[in-house]
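Lab notebook page, bench 4
Experiment: in silico fold of construct C2
Operator: M.H.
Input chain length: 213 residues
Purpose: comparison with the prior construct
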Amino acid sequence: MARYTGPVCKLCRREGEKLFLKGARCLSPKCSVERRSYPPGQHGKDAQFRRGRGSDYSLQLREKQKARRIYGILERQFRRYFREALRRPGLTGSNLLSILESRLDNVVYRMGWADSRNHARLLVQHGHISVNGRRTNVPSFLTTPGDEISVRDGSKTRTYFKEIGAYMEARPPAPEWLRVDVAALKGVVDRLPERRDVEIPLNEQLIVEYYSR
C-alpha cells in the first residue's frame, strides 16, 4: 500500500503546530517547529505573515489534513473511515476519532511500546505484534473490545523489547480504554475509545463539514 515517505517535519511546519510524528525529537530543541515555525517552501516566511483566519473551506481542509497526517493515513482510506463513521450510530465526528484510535498501530503507540505512530506501524509490519495470539502485520487492523494485544514470544528476546520498560517510563501513560501489563508485554482493549479519550487537538466537526460539502 502507498504511504508518505517524505520528511515528516515539513508536515508539522505546514500545519503550524507539533503533530508528534518523530517521537522524542518533537520534545527536544531539534524540533523543526521550534526552530522554523513558518511553513516550508521558498515563500514560507512570506506565507507566515499572510496567514489570516482563512475561509471556512480552508479551515476544514487543514483540519482534515492534520488528522490524516497525525494518524499516517492516505486520502482514500480516510474517506472509507468517514463512511464507516456515518454508518455507526452517534456523532459522526466522535465515531471517526474512535475508528482512528482503534487502529492497531495507534493502539501499539498508545500502549507505550513505540515513541511514534510511524514507529508502531513498523513494529506491526515487521511481525512483532500479535492480536488474540495470532501474528498480525496489518497496521490498519481495527481492534475491538476484548482484544488482547501482545508482543510475540519470538520478539521478546530482542534487545528493544527487553529494555522497553525503561522506554515506557518516559512516555505518556496508556489511556483508560487500554489495560497494559508492562512485565508481560501485553494489553487488553477494555472498550472502544471515546471522544474524551482523544487528547489530540482536533476539531472533528470541521472534518465532518469538509466531507459533507
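Observations: The mean pLDDT is 84. The longest strand covers residues 148-151.
Next step: discuss at group meeting.
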